[in-house]
């Protein structure tokens, strides 16, 4: 006889399973049929909880984005000055990636749709991360260079994160230091 899980437990089970599948194979290659089968529920039950694949993905993505942003915000807030904040933020970014690569893969999935609510939410997450970089650059970078540098630094962190997850050649800390050593000389503009 099969035991019925309470709704909240079943919901968490569905999210954990979906997140693992999305992280491993990407949004584009995961189906609701697969998620339902992996959880051990019917597809109609999965749809009853989440409505569609997009909403299921968003339910997986939001806690991942919130956790990463919170981790970086905490590190940046504890720094004594903007240069230290930038370094602390980069270290926090890679420490998060090291601690929860699955969440990071969900956020940086290259198979995500280019439009719709998922694209909007990912855009909001990226904007929050770029704003943190912008705040750290503000005081020691020429004002017209702040925005493009923020985009470039965050893009470099994402690309290096993908490389790190694929190869694992360096520790997260050494990878963060590599990025910092690469960008810091170019930031001495003032």
Detailed description of the structure:
This protein has a single domain (7-187), classed as Tetracycline Repressor, domain 2, CATH 1.10.357. With 190 residues, it is an all-alpha fold. Helices cover 76% and strands 0% of the residues. The model has no long low-confidence stretch (mean pLDDT 91). It has helices spanning 7-25, 32-39, 43-50, 53-77, 82-99, 101-107, 116-137, 143-167, 172-183. GO terms for molecular function: DNA-binding transcription factor activity; transcription cis-regulatory region binding. Residues 8-68 form the HTH tetR-type domain.
Mean pLDDT: 91
What's the CATH superfamily, by name? Tetracycline Repressor, domain 2
Secondary structural class: mainly alpha
Q: What overall form do the CA principal axes indicate?
A: elongated
Q: What is the count of distinct domains?
A: 1
Spans with pLDDT under 50 lasting ≥5 residues?
Answer: none
Assign the CATH architecture. Answer: Orthogonal Bundle
- How are helices and strands ordered from N to C? HHHHHHHHH
CATH class: Mainly Alpha
Evaluate the radius of gyration. 19 Å
GO biological process, one term: negative regulation of DNA-templated transcription
GO molecular function: DNA-binding transcription factor activity; transcription cis-regulatory region binding
DNA-binding region: 31-50
Keywords: DNA-binding, Transcription, Transcription regulation
């Amino acid at each position: 006889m099969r035991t019925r899980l309470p709704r909240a437990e079943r919901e968490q089970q569905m999210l954990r399973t979906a997140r693992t599948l999305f992280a491993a194979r990407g949004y584009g290659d995961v189906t609701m049929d697969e998620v339902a089968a992996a959880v051990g529920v019917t597809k109609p039950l999965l749809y009853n909880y989440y409505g569609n694949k997009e909403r299921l993905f968003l339910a997986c993505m939001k806690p991942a984005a919130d956790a990463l942003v919170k981790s970086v915000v905490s590190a940046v807030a504890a720094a004594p000055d903007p240069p230290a904040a930038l370094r602390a933020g980069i270290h926090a970014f890679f420490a998060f990636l090291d601690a929860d690569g699955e969440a990071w893969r969900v956020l940086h999935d290259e198979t995500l749709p280019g439009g719709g609510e998922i694209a909007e939410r990912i855009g909001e997450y990226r904007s929050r991360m770029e704003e943190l970089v912008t705040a750290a650059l503000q005081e020691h970078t020429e004002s017209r260079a702040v925005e493009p540098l923020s985009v470039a630094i965050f893009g470099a962190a994402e690309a290096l994160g993908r490389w790190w997850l694929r190869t694992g050649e360096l520790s997260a800390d050494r990878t963060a230091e590599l990025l910092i050593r690469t960008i810091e000389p170019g930031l001495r503009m003032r």
